[in-house]
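Preliminary data (for renewal application), guanosine-5'-triphosphate complex.
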Amino acid sequence: MLNSLRTKLTLSMLITSLAAISVMALITPWLLEQRFVNEAREVHFKGFVRAIEEFRQDHQEWGGRQSALLINQYLSNRQAAPIRPALSDQRPTVSNSFRFVLTDHQGFVFLPFFEYELGQQLSAEQLQQANPLTLDGELVGYALGGGELPLTDQDKSYLLIQSRSMLIGAAAGLAVTLLLSLTMGSQLVKHLQALTRAAIEMSKGNLNQRVQVEGKDEVALLAREFNRMAQELNNTYAELKASNETIKAQAEAMQELSLRDELTGLHNRRYFNQQFRLMHHQAIRYQDALALALGDIDNFKQINDRFSHHIGDAVLKQVAVLMQKEIREADVLARYGGEEFVILMAHTDKRQAEGLIDRIRAKVEAWPWHQLASELHVTISFGISDKLDSDLGHSMLVEADNRLYQAKDLGRNRVCV
Ligand SMILES: Nc1nc2c(ncn2[C@@H]2O[C@H](COP(=O)(O)OP(=O)(O)OP(=O)(O)O)[C@@H](O)[C@H]2O)c(=O)[nH]1
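Predicted structure:
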């Protein structure tokens, strides 16, 4: 459960939001109070300065013992009022602990408070912190504020309402942020999940994968690169597949070629040997008949010698065509060597084979050979065997060969069984 990215994102956002709210809850009221007190001191001081200036105008006396007593009395008579920002016309507050030390224009204290004593002259540094008091543009003295400025109950409740409102606003803002973050997080997770699914599909071999690209951020960049990579992989795979198929087809063609006789286009002796082993084995196993005929063109040497080697080749090709026409599809016909041919006939004994083979012999004899060369006559002799022995067909081949010799001996252009 904790391993999922969505859970991790949600948890981290929750923790961040809670931490932010907690920090705000602790710090905001304190900061607000500090600001408020500073502001209040400022307001208080301005009010005080204004009161002093009023006093100066009323009494025309400043800096002596008498003025100190009068000022104290004057200030005590003023009403304390709650301190709130923006109440600029408010009368100055008289607080028990917040006081002003007053000096004449040379900095000699005539209204002492705190550690300051009557008649003491303030240092240049202290005077810098003090507020200059002027009347009609003339410097008449300094006022130095000090002490605590306690807040009234009204100020405190005002502060409480303000900090609560701020907290509620902040909490609402954080809730919106959290909601937005969750929505964005879930979008991010959605994209990453789509990428993961596509990658898994690719690893299974389904290379044609695409993911949706939205926006321009890093995830969109990743998605775009993924799509490009998937496209390239797909193309490469298609090229590889095509070239693999070409190689396979070429290999098959070469295999076929290696089993074919170039001149006649018939299967060659290698192919015959493969098929003969197989058919011979099956015939013995299923006690089926199998016949083998060996054919040899008569006096072929003479044809070559008299009509040229070229005519000899043409004769071989034509004999192949004639044989091919006569045999059945299940039969195996091959050029066995020079002017020798072999025919394997499944489910056929030598008597049945004799009929087919003699038909071939007659076709060869009857073909209009003069079309190739005038006075050319071609005949062929055959020997047939259907002898099945457990010797990989050796006996059958020997017997067919013996019958072929017999046919030659008996005057050629015949079939011996
Ligand atoms: N033109 C041509 N001649 C070939 C080819 N292969 C073998 N020969 C020739 O076929 C001839 C076979 O002659 P022989 O074995 O003496 O037999 P034959 O002349 O047919 O006599 P019999 O078989 O007794 O009738 C040889 O001269 C070979 O050179 C070939 O592909 N083309």
